[in-house]
Amino acid sequence: MKKILVLLIAISTIFSCSEDADDNVVLQNNASVNFKFSHHWDGTALNSSNYENLDLTNENGEVINIDRIRYLISRVELINTATGLRYLFDGYKFTDISNEDTYNFLPEINTIPTGSYALKFVWGFNEEDNTDGAYPDLNSASWNWPAMLGGGYHFLQFDGMYNVDTTNPSSFNYHNGTAKVSDGVFEQNFAIINLSGPFMITNNATIEVKMNIAEFFKNPNTWDLNVLDTPLMPNYTAQKMMQENVMSVFSLGEITQ
Asked: What rounded mean pLDDT belongs to the chain?
């Protein structure tokens, strides 16, 4: 009888311990994330069907038409605000506003734990990634930045006409990349974009990133196209002004989940 009682106590102890352990287990839920980039000019939506057909007024008062906008971001990263863990997604995103297939960025490995997050990415390529000829798809897109200006790749090609409301319109080529200081001396010109947060990821999610193209011309530097139209690629001052202005171009949009 004593043996049976001891056995029952032992069994009871085992099950009791097992239940306690289960009570302390926190199940980790995961979610997949996709990024959707949308474009506007101070609230007027821009997309493949209308960007060439609009008269837009910049901060300095010039009326412009857009012919082309292409840009590149890289090192998209989500930072868990509770744990500090960082989730860096492989690859880069090359966007051509004329092709809506390029608006989304879906990383090959895109699963993260649910939780509270902040978003950051690199405008263009950082010094480590900005390597001449390293990306065949960008080479075929004529995205290279001239070696005499520091090499690597463009960050932005923004082309169009300004003063289109006058009898004397002119072209502009707002191209951004490595900054040339002097002959053979160059300065990295990428930017780290941190978007306001935090935001919650509770399920599979699409994160919208909004791009206000008008900001390239106004914050913090009001851009006068009558002075700075073309060529801008070898102009050190213009390149650094672009780097400053891009900081206010992006904002966090809707999160669908």
From this structure: 91
